[in-house]
Known about the structure:
The chain has no helices and eleven strands. The chain is mostly beta strands.
Amino acid sequence: MKNYTITVNGNVYDVTVEEATGEASAPKATAAAKAAPAPKAAPKAAPAGAQGSVKVNAPMPGKILAVKANAGKAVKKGEVLLILEAMKMENEIVAPQDGTVASINVTVGDQVEAGAVIATLN
């Protein structure tokens, strides 16, 4: 057996590696650093019947900094609905077409994944 200390993204791990004996076995590792925090729960879904026909998806993973439109608001194509922070940049998420906001599926501070439905329009 050989012991190694490995640093990944600033976390230090002590790893023990067994030499192959011809048998398959599961690798064993012990973490010297604290475990990563659990991922945040998925954003709340809008109430049933509140979804619009036009979905607005997050173009990239990030954090919601501001919500600029509320359900029921009439919007024009290109009007800002939300501000999404990704890679230390603020990105405006705009209405893809004229319509009425049916639902905003996120709140300020939510983490979203790329492709997540963050708003809907009618």
